[in-house]
Amino acid sequence: MPATILVINGPNLNNLGKRDTSLYGNKTLADIESEISALASQLQIGVKFFQSNHEGAIVDFIQQFSSEAAGVIINAGALTQVGYSILDALLDTGLPFVEVHLSNIHAREEFRQKSVFAARAVGQMAGFGSSGYIYALDHLSSIIDN
């Protein structure tokens, strides 16, 4: 059975393709998930996708499925600065995780530049658009293989 990566997206990411395309691009979340699935298939890794606009639902998902996973890719969206319960859930799993942001949060408003996840993540992809998810999957794959 191949390793599985949980791919978690937070608030408003369900509206990709309709949001400010200068920041977030034209791709929908379904488009991004298709790209991730294609690479995961090549890498012989399973992926399980989840999106919610609610912090508690994200925590529930992590708690429910982490025992089946080898790593996590998370774009917490606007919960990046305040999602301590999500961080705690991730840390409780002991799994490596990569933080992803479509836009470069470090070049945006000051309040967006802080991440509660960054110091504990194995990496952060910010500003690479949807390719950040691909880079994150490739990185987690190499960690899992080692």
How would you describe the overall organization of this protein?
With 146 residues, the chain is an alpha/beta fold. 38% of the residues lie in helices and 18% in strands. It has helices spanning 21-24, 29-43, 55-65, 84-93, 131-145; strands at 4-9, 46-51, 71-75, 97-101, 123-126. It has a five-stranded parallel beta sheet, with helices on both faces. The longest helix has 15 residues, at 29-43. The mean pLDDT is 94.
Q: Main attributes?
A:
146 residues, alpha/beta, Rossmann fold, 5 helices
Work out the helix count: 5
Indicate how many domains the architecture comprises. 1
Averaged pLDDT, please?
Answer: 94
User: Can you name the CATH architecture?
Assistant: 3-Layer(aba) Sandwich
Estimate percent helicity.
25-40%
Q: Mind telling me the C-alpha Rg?
A: 14 Å
Structural class: alpha/beta
Low-confidence stretches: none
Shape: globular
CATH homology group: Dehydroquinase, class II
Side by side, the strands of the main sheet go 2-1-3-4-5
- Which CATH C-level class is it? Alpha Beta
Task: Please give the number of β-strands.
Answer: 5
Beta-strand proportion: 15-25%
Question: How many angstroms does the end-to-end distance come to?
Answer: 17 Å
Q: What kind of sheet is the major sheet?
A: 5 strands, parallel
CATH fold assignment:
Rossmann fold
